[in-house]
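Example record

One chain of 252 residues, shown exactly as stored in the release files.
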Amino acid sequence: MATDCLFREDSYLKECSATVLGVTEAGGLLLDRTVFYAASGGQPGDRGVLMSPSGDPIPIASASYTDPAKTEIAHLPASIGLPLETGDTVRAAVDWDLRYARMRMHTALHLLSAVLPYPVTGGAVGDTDGRLDFDIPEAGLDKDEITRRLAAMIAAGAEVRSRWITDAELEAAPNLVKTMSVKPPIGTGRVRLIEIAGYDLQPCGGTHVRNTNEIGEVSDPDRKEGQTKPTGAHCICVGCSRGSGAPSYSGR
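Predicted structure tokens for this chain:
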């Protein structure tokens, strides 16, 4: 049964009530609705807790999709022996500090893909760092210019918003898809877009901040050059302190 993924409409929703629908063979809890982001597109699944009807906390180590269409989410407990049954009502709450750090990082990576308009071959969203892998023609990357442009986009306070288009609309606009390694799911009839006003528009199911100025200031650490990357492949990284809110940049 499809999970109502509340995070797709409101990334700032920290908790919700939900009904237990069942348990997967791996022990994952299936709920009718959730605020937990499930691992996808380089962003890890949320951690958090489910509160049982009796008030017992059930730590959740991660969340994952059970199907290729990404319609059903399993919440993976940190331990076995759960005091829950099908039909129970629980309170689901994410680890907000971790979620918000990943929201800021994910939006920063979208801006980075706008600064560097090259095909993206891979990437990862973390709470303290993240990266995008680009297929870039052999040419020097100007780290200072990348840092300057990224900082300007963040400081501009651009609105970040989501909207939906149909599968047919996406197929008619293939240029919206930047990632070569991860394709947006097709088949449910609609695809979610993330727009950073004036800078970027692309399919994405991840969680994001509402405004680029929430990301924080860009610092300028040393750049590291990769030693094993194939010709044309460049790994560009951004780092973000969960405490200070200041992202940093490096390339390798």
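Notes: Residues 220-231, 244-252 have pLDDT under 50 and may be disordered.
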